[in-house]
Amino acid sequence: MTTLAAAMQLLVAAAFVSIPVVRHRYGPAARAAAVAELRRQNVRPAVLEENKLRFDAGGHETAAPAAVAAVMITIAALNFAGADLAQILTWIFSSLVVLMNVAIVYSNLTAVKSVQAAFRRKGDPELARVEVAPFLQAAEGAFPRWVRAQTYLRNTVVFAGSAIALVAVSVA
C-alpha cells in the first residue's frame, strides 16, 4: 500500500508543478489582455508594475508549488523505500496539501472580491478604480479553454490523490 501512496504523491507533485508551467507559458498573454482591459478602463498599465502585480510564474507563483512538489516527491521516495518515517510525513504533508488546495480553490472562487479588497489595501487610488471583474475576465480569457479543465483535473488529483495516500499509509 505504501507504493500506492507514493504513486499518488507523485501525481500530486505533478499537479502542483503544472501551475507554474501553465502560468509561465500563458502568463504574458494574460498580462497583455489585462493591460488592454486597463487601457479600456482608462487606467495606466504601469499600475501593475508599480504594485508588483504579475501574471507569470515568477516569485511565489513558482516557489510555493515547486516546494510542495519537492516535499511530495521526497515523501514518495520514502514510501517507495518503505521507510518508517514515510507514514507520519504522509499524514502531516498530505493533510497540509489538502488544506492548501482548499485555500487555493476558495481564493479562485472569491477572486473578484479578494482582488478588490487587495487593490483597496494597496492604497493606490488608481488601482482602486480598476473594475476588477472585467480585468480578471480579460486575463483569464487569455488562457486556452483547456486550462479550466486542467484546473478541475488538478484539483481532483490533489484532493483524491492526497486522500488515497492517507488511506494507503493507514492500512499499510
Keywords summarizing the entry:
mainly alpha, 0% strand, elongated, 172 residues, 8 helices
**Total beta-strand segments:** 0
Class by alpha and beta content: mainly alpha
Helix content: over 70%
Order of helices and strands: HHHHHHHH
Overall pLDDT metric = 94
H/I helix tally: 8
What oligomeric state do these chains adopt?
single chain
Biggest pleated sheet: none
Can you give a write-up of this model?
- The chain is an all-alpha fold.
- It contains eight helices and no strands.
- It has helices at 2-40, 46-50, 60-81, 85-109, 111-122, 125-128, 132-141, 146-171.
- 29% of the residues are buried.
What's the short version?
With 172 residues, the protein is an all-alpha fold. It has 8 helices and no strands.
Please give the structural blueprint.
Elements: H1 2-40, H2 46-50, H3 60-81, H4 85-109, H5 111-122, H6 125-128, H7 132-141, H8 146-171
